[in-house]
Protein 1
Amino acid sequence: MPAGRADVRGRAPTASGAGTRARLVAVLLRTESRALPWRSPLAAALVGLLLAAVPWAFAPELDQGVRLNVLRATALCGALAAAFLLDDPARHTTGAVPVPRPLRQALRVGLVLPVAALWWAAALLLSQRGDAAVRAEGLPYGAVTLEAATLCALAVALSAGVVRCTGVCAPGAGVGGAVLALVVVVMALQPDGFELFVPLRDPRWEVAHQRWAVLLAVAVLGWAGCAPDPVRRLGRRRG
Amino acid sequence: MTTRPSSSGTAASPGTAAPADATRRPAAGTPTVAASGLSLTYHRTVALDEVSLRLDPGVTGLLGPNGAGKTTLLRVLATAIRPDQGTLTVLDDDPGSVRGRTAVRRKLGYLPQSPGFHPGFTAFEFVDYVAILREHTHRAARHQEVRRVLAAVGLSDVRGKRIRALSGGMRQRVALAAALVDDPGFLVLDEPTVGLDPEQRIRFRELIAEAGEDRTVLLSTHQTEDVAMLCRRVVVLAHGRIEFDGTPAELAEQAAGRVWASTAREPAALAGWRTGTGEFRNLGDPPDGARLLEPTLEDGYLLTLGGLPTKEDA
């Protein structure tokens, strides 16, 4: 048996076993970073940054209400990017390997998180460039970040759900479209008692963001529930 | 395969790195796969209906029409999906639990129907990726194993080429190499020769035959020639049930005395088709005085299924 494998296999996670597992995770991190479909998420993220830069570049006098909505559009671009994270053309070829799928999905998300955090910080900075008087009003960064995180988590959870329930290898485009449609519908309808995208200084702001927090928890739990290997799928393959 | 290690656990030739420990072969006297009463339903469609199967070393062919449940059965045996009912043991482990499933996955190789790849990877990088997913953490040993399996499928020369630049046959061989990482005791191959030209198919057959010399290989295919050339045993699946289980010769024997030639289409035949000579080859109960023909595996297979599918079935 090649060196380095004995500890992973057939041994309880003792100190050395845990060390080998850490090494496996380190090796996997490198490999998953190469397997990640970077192009589509980066394109979506770039569009998001360009959107965030619009007030600074073209309309520095825009008030914070409009800037908030621009940031929301940027967050939506982030969610579209997140929808592609679980795309895996080799999904079926690697469908019966010992490394569990939740670990691989977690590594992918973990790899992207620091990049996403930097991207969002850049978006927040860009959105606040411009007129000093407008800037002085300030934006509730925490609340907007909560909205962005929830949208991204929702996209990942939906992608994980598609992977778990279907044979689809690349759920990104479909899930991205679904998230976009969902956001448009919720923004347009603003259903009574379930308002999410409320304007600044609206009395419903606090309650709406409590809903966002609940949604974030639901999305994370949904992802956790969908991450394990697919047990059943909705369609059937031929043969 | 030229550099595969022997089943005793020692490398067959210098420079090989396959682990080949005894745990990847079933214990003496026990089957590689023991399945009993496997059932699986997709919504209202019964994909598997009380399938019981025992697999031992050698190549077993799995034949059946589209929608027969072949891929579903293979995916169940490869632990990719779980059955609704039934018991399954693969290489002495029960994949019903997470621990058992992981143990089975360490010992089996799976080549799915239409395998997908990360197209930007080279052949070496992709097989290396699969080796990492098979828990190979030690770089030097892993690379040695990757080189071994790529050599085994004859891809050493193109290991640095991107997968998107490889032909369909070469991609299939990359997928086979990935399935061979770790010298698995049980190899599950789902229609591996689809889309290959005759030369590639012969090459692939040779690889499968070599793989089946000391391990259990389950080969799903539509090609009766593949079964005739490769398999010691053949299982015919239809509507999720096993309709035949025996040797290829026994399957062909099913059609003995039930294949005849005629100059016109025979309405009484279960199936009949015009051949290149202009004659009709008919299956079923021949009329008196009919000129009987030597049955083939395909004849036996078609008669097991009750003839050719109707246009509606097809």
Note: Residues 139-152 of chain B form the longest helix (14 residues).
Protein 2
Amino acid sequence: MRKLALSDEILLSVEKPARYIGGEFNAANKDFDAMDVNICFCFPDVYEIGMSHLGIQILYDMFNRWEGIYCDRVYSPWPDLDKIMREQKIPLFGVESQRPVKDFDILCVTLQYEMCYTNVLQVIDLSQIPLLSKDRGDDDPIVIGGGPCAYNPEPIADFFDIFYIGEGETQYQRLTELYKKVRREAGGDWRQQFLRQASHIPGMYVPSLYEVTYYDQGGMEGDNPAPRPELAGTIASFRPLYEDVPERIRKEIVTDVSDTYYPDAPLVPFIRATQDRVVLEIQRGCIRGCRFCQAGMIYRPVRERSIDFLKEKAVKLLESTGHEEITLSSLSSSDYSHLEELVNFLIDNFHGQGVNVSLPSLRIDAFFLDFMSKVQDIRKSSLTFAPEAGTQRLRNVINKGLTEEDILNGAALAFEGGWNRVKLYFMLGIPTETVEDMEGIPILADKIARRFYEIPKDQRNGRVQIVASSSFFVTKPFTPFQWAGMCTKEEFIAKARHVRNKFKEMRNAKSLKYSWHEADETVMEGVLARGDRRLAPAILEAYRMGCMFDAWSDFFHYDRWLLALEKWGIDIDFYNSRTRVYEEILPWDFLDCGVTKKFLWREWEKAQQELVTANCRMGCSGCGALVFGGGVCFEDKSEVR
Amino acid sequence: MKIRVKFGKYGGLKFVGHLDIMRYFQKCMRRAKVDIRYSTGFSPHQIMSFAQPLGLGVTSDGEYMDIEVNSTDTSERMIQRINAANVEDIRIYSYRLLPEKAKTGMAIIAAADYEVRFRYGCPFDLKEAWPRFMEQTQILIEKQTKSGKKETDIKPLIYEHYPMEDGLFLKLSCGSVVNLKPETVMEALYSFAGFTLGPLDLLLHRKELYGELAQKESEEHCFLALEEMGVDITEPMCEGQSR
């Protein structure tokens, strides 16, 4: 029987103790003491969320296929256990091996959203590993960050030894081989040697090997004036400390996604995870090029998995997990070339056996409605549209292809098929937004309701219910809006109130509901998303003041964050409200995600001119992702889709 | 065909609650390719019921679930198959065919065996206190009900009992009508001995669950372990096949 790291007394006094016991079905359970390298993979949020993450399942499986390497997992202990562990000085442990994280060789942390940064500190701290990379010694694990937030790693650069930029499947073998070699040859004092050599591996960013200088408020870096007055306070230079360390780091990607690691038997948690189902990743990347979307840029080019690969995996995964549901994962499922064939395969083979098939991010058209009528109870489901903006003008600004006609026709088809509930997602505060754009949100919602009531009474299903919600626009690195200013908290709230009041004036107001997200969290997310190295002490300060689980509204303390930022002289407006000029060195400029800065700037200018850009299948717009030599860039465009 | 499955739950699995165990077994049945029957309707679910939930932190050698299947291999091979689809800390012990008209374990459960041990040792002399405790004509406990506090005599619900080397064996009334938890008995015992039972003082282990054979209340209790109501399957079978 496995010995647990926590006593019965502790486990019985915390919420959901099964979060901390490991031993899930399909767990690797390798012999920790017999390994060359032990890796602990961390999702810095609660277990149920972390267990739902496909990326970790893929890399966990990959590492454990390799001889001499064991990969375990760790998640953020919930605040109830966090408190006990601090009081009793219990070191954080891998859930499967139940061994202290500090006994592992490498701690890999996936960074899926900015609001997890304090949880990263929680995990490192509870593991009893020094929080700052510079304080770590030869007895401490190497701490590696990866995932979308690694595309601007600078705010948290001080806490990491390495950032892995891009997809994990390609370079971890080299990195672990290097680790073994250096540990074998260097003996003690191995750490600096390892980090220096790691920086030579493609995709590896070792922040301690780079130096950043800034222009002061007067626009000077020492005696050197900034070329433009707008550059005051921004980065003056970013360069490696040594000649052998690369100046730019290009992201790593898998070019053939049908011939790579993908688990046959993923972990099945005991408690219900957010994704309690088989997740089949059908493709990576997105052809659409929505200008607000970071994922749509950093994961380019689109690479589809072959239909045979997916069919085979679907069968294996359902058998090995026993899950009752399978879902397809991608940024835009409707764009997958063989979607219809795949969906029909899943329905024909599994639907009769008590397996649900679910499809997120689908365009609402005849195919969708046919699919839904086969697999779901219409009465219980609702239609979801994400127009993101209220008018065609603003949808052109963000390059969102969805038109009002698409929405109204899709809704009408669905209403005739018996649906009567619609969800709409919008963003407020998009650059160039006008009052008319804001008011377009209730007007569009009302038009959908009118379309419903145009259907003869005996042919429609009761009353229509339309729920619109808006989030506030956050500017992300590596998007065409990376230069744009964000709204302030007060502006956001004023916009939301305006929209709410307009909703009340609509003819079908009784059928419409409107809600909006918190503005405080949006402001902090903006600062963390486009921040630089000067933010690190403030993040640490916020953590010391008790900030944790910032992604959970109940635990988010805006007041503490404001105090922490103020103490370290961080000006929110400098990071959020300011519109950047082209000449500015952005904190993430040294990273190369394929998509070029020139392309992004061109897109930023087109956005301001309300011009749309064609998707990758309609025509190449020269974003730069072609350099990777694969995916949609090399598809045969003569084939009609 | 109705099948009764007996299983044990150990180690870290004692921290997985009843609802999660139900979900766990649904997935386990699919992995083991048990030809389980599904309910009809738009969202079919497996026909599966558990005799009695087990509390968080309690281990057991004698848990039961009843399922319905369309076809089945022999008991021996089904046990092997299901165990191969199980985590280490859950073990299947028997897989038996029930008579077609058999009621579910949940409907007929009447008694349960427990072993009670002490996490930090018993604060009083158990071997001396237990007989005195049981010599009382009545063992009254206060129960909080909707209409206020109510006194109940739990003595008649303790069917069998004896001190063990390191604890206590108890056979207690169990089920939806009169359910007596071992914690309730121990709480009364502690109070009788002049102590207060702490929430983590006990280590509980369930040994077996029983149905009642006696037809009337006046008859003497006659308990039969739930697995004894079924028979081992020695040849593969299909629904509709004559037996």
Note: The two ends of chain A are 56 Å apart (CA to CA).
Protein 3
Amino acid sequence: MDMEILQDYLPEARELLEKAQEDTLRLEADPGNDEVLASVFRAFHTLKGGAGFLDADHLVDWTHHLEDLLDKLRSHSLPVSPIMIDTILKGLDVIDGMLRELAQGDNPGAGPADLGQVIQNLAAGRPPAAGNPPAAQGIEPGVDRTPILCTDMDATLLARQQSTGDGRTGVYVERLPEGATEHSTGKTDEITAEEFEATLDALYGNKAPGLMDSAEAACAASDEITEDEFEKVLDDLYGDQAPGIVPAPALRHDTPPSTVMGAISKGGGHAQALPGVKADPGSTSAVVATPPKTGAATAPEAAETTLRVDAVRLDAVMNQVGELVLLRNRLASAVSSLGEENEDMARIAREMDLTVNDIQNTVMRLRMQPCKRLFQQLPRVVRDVSRQLGKEVKLEIVGEDVEIDKTVVDALSGPMTHLVRNSLDHGIEGPEERAAAGKARTATLRVAAIHLGDKVRIEVSDDGKGIDRQFVTQKAIDKGVISAEQAARLSEQEALELIFRPGFSTKDQATDLSGRGVGMDVVKETARKLRGRLDLQTRLGQSTSIAMEFPLTLAVLPVLYLRLRRDVYAMPVSAIESLIDVSETRMHRLNGRTVYRIDGAQVTPVVDLGALLHHKPLALRSESIEGVLTDRGLFIVSEVLGNEDSVVKPIDFLADENWYQGATISGKGSVVLILDPSALTAAAIADMEGVA
Amino acid sequence: MKAAPVFESGDHRWWILHDQDEHRVIDSNVYVMESNGQSILLDPGGFEIFPQIFAAMVEVVQPSSLQAAFVSHQDPDIASSLPLWNACNGKIHWHIPKLWEGFIRHYGALDAHFVSIPDEGRELVIGGRKLEFIPAHYLHSSANFHVYDPEAKVFFSGDVGAALLPPGHSAWVDRRDPESSKAFDEHIQHAKFFHQRWMPSNEAKKDWISRVRQLDIDFLCPQHGAIYAGENVQRFLHWFDALPVGTALSAMHA
Amino acid sequence: MDIQRIMAIVEASYQTRHSIEGALRDIDRRALNAMVLVKRHGNALAGYGVVARAFREGAADLKEAASHMQKSIAPLIQAHMRILQHRSYADLFRRMRETMDGAGKICPTLGCTEETWAQTIAAEEAEALNILYILIQAVNRIQEGIAEQEYVVTNGRIEAALSEDTGAPLMRVSRDMGNAVGIVRDAIRSYRNQLEELLHESGTGF
């Protein structure tokens, strides 16, 4: 298998697959949409082409059948039916599996025979009966010197990629005389105009406007490529911007009489001015070389400036910036200890500080990805699950464009699916139940990403039946998650949050929906690992909303350094509400817990770090103390030292409590543990109750 | 001279002023107890070290809070600064063993406000907190008192527990390893001669130990040397119990 | 010099130091609070971040200046107590001489000793005056620091007004900062007045 081709093929194939799934779901609502039909067709076709190159014969077969089916739908020789949509979606799942196998370096095995048969039968216009599918043909789209044929009756239009004089890759198109085909398989399976168009798609993306028409034109019945045909090809490749319009001084190619070679960079390159190309109407061949116009109609500039970079390299840059940040901190610390007499150094340190901040921001943005990637799987999940459960659900997606760190996007895919499934399974009622409760039959499930300062909030909310605190508490007691005595002491919110405890599941039998090894505890743990926080809001009979808040970036962590007696710890700034002067008169004992009255009626649990980390409470009256107010509780420490933008280093030697988010290196060069406020608050509360 | 906290709980504090800069006179500790904005000085020290004692004290307690001073006995290292304190603050009440009043006036404070302590001792309330004057006669002075703060569990022991330490010494007998008696054993070498020679009566000693053993003491604070905390308090009482005193007599008769 | 004047200075030094210590801690905490607030809002409050940082640096400078002041207070008090102590010697010899004079006996050695003490005390008073100058200089530095902090606070108010739409309670933060600085300013101003009175009396004392 050609690994280089594979590396190019896989990401594109995944994008095509995702697009196809999205389109297929759209078809369900809008079965007659030709544009969407064509798009799905093209996706299968292109997938097939690439698979041929990789000698992934089973993938070729599979996509071929799907392509076949779509071809019929596209030409309206068959109507789109719900069973077809289901079948196509299932077929897409099979492709997904095959791509996974490819990614692992395996040549995919055959798809499930029964489903394959169903697809073929549907394509043949008959429900699940036997049919003899036509043999799949390996069709190679034009990549790397492999020619493809565009045949029309008796002429062949050959397109291939070929190196140009300046080292770039160009596309070479020529009409071959009859019989002069170089078809690698030597078979007479003709490539249609659509195939050629799909080939161009594979090469240039599939968004060029009017591509289909022109491709058909390009394969016109004539032996010759007419000026019109050629112009059309050019138009399609360039969009509306004909090469002649582009100012041309950049390239000074000698134009061969019958060919024009231009520059194209593989996988999308720079905008490159081309000389005006004047096709010779009488010539039998022409070569067109263009910069690719992926998505030319929508965002040509974006396309031209996009670069695919290996995530590993980005991670490497990120780590190096992390080291730079730490060094910056140490420099700042060293310079500040020099004193005032060193104005010059102080100024350099300040400028360095700003520059590193800029680099940090820029690199951070490199890693940002839109939440669309996170959300795009959800329509399918909602469709399948709601159908299975017989519920009517409308999915609302908000904030697809909101960007967040790639790590978050990657890690959250499982938990997001689980949250949505959970909502469908436990939150949303069936239509009759809803109607009986005076609600609309169709429930609304809302998934949203919201940008909040240096955080992104991701919410999954529904207008279902809410979570019953008593029910949850009783379940938790039954499952042995907590004791009845502990349960009695829980606040309302704490009782609800029992659903995040390991070992808790409100369904008595694990349905296949809540299976897959992802539970609410995993959602919580994932959020914790990503330094996020989880927030659960519910109104009985009305709604449930589970929100996760994540820092925009995981690369840099602003921390507050604090001192506990002689030890220094760090706490993420994101968790801190404010720093307060602790007043003894505001400390109260309430239900066996020590709480602090912030203002008016608002009280928060007191987390004595001395008691937790030193097993010796901080003596309010004889030791210096300061308070750090977090959204979880008031942390009592000896002194707050200052803040710093820091970099997290993972720690793996602490097997005991998960009280730390990691470690960092302070400006003074020492290793400092980063506290996890919510874990510590939980521990403090457990401690107090143990004593009570 | 340095000020260091001995005990602190809210508005109730004990301080030690120690490690004086003048070495031609015996090194002495001065203690201050503050409660509720009122304070008392314990064994205010000699005339020569008064300026540094005063400067160190006003770092930690508000000068106007000083209500009273306690003088355990008549020695100059304890009471000769009396006229200077009196000049600074004529309102200070001086709690003095009744037996020594006429002697102490010789330091030059004829107009100072003296409050006598009878032989059996008595109590005093400062800022709402009770202090007990514990009789310690013949240890070493013939009319001599120690001070106990039952709330802070601080025991001011005057010359008992005194050690002659080199300049720059710590305020505490090393307490980093409370399980081990090593630090105590080293320290007590510097206390041995002082107790054998300046303490005249084994009988007085036994009587004192039996009474003091009934008190709950966290900090035993001598006027010379370093503070005994925690385990070291019992170690000291045990050591002192076993130590024969009044050695000058036995040396003469040997 | 009147011992009561000295005692008033001793008292004022204690008071000033304590109120400044508390207020400086307060300023530092407020500066940190502002920085935390800024950090939590990402780039939206970058402008206020500069203010918060300057405020915190100012707080550190003030702390440093206050510790310089502190270092001069104890020597000043000690010097005056030394003078008090030596005056009592001088008084002793003066009284003895007066008693002898009254008895019609002249003792030149006694007069000589009295003279020696007077010289010693004069030298010590000069030393005390010198320390007082240094102390006033240290107070001056604190006052400069306060002026800078007040400038930062004013900038903070402007920035707060500019970033009002972010919803961060910057106006309140700025006001709190201003109040904390005000406490130090007032305490140090009244302390300076007392020191200058002492300086005035010391100057006319010679």
Note: The helical segments of chain C are 3-40, 46-102, 108-162, 170-205.
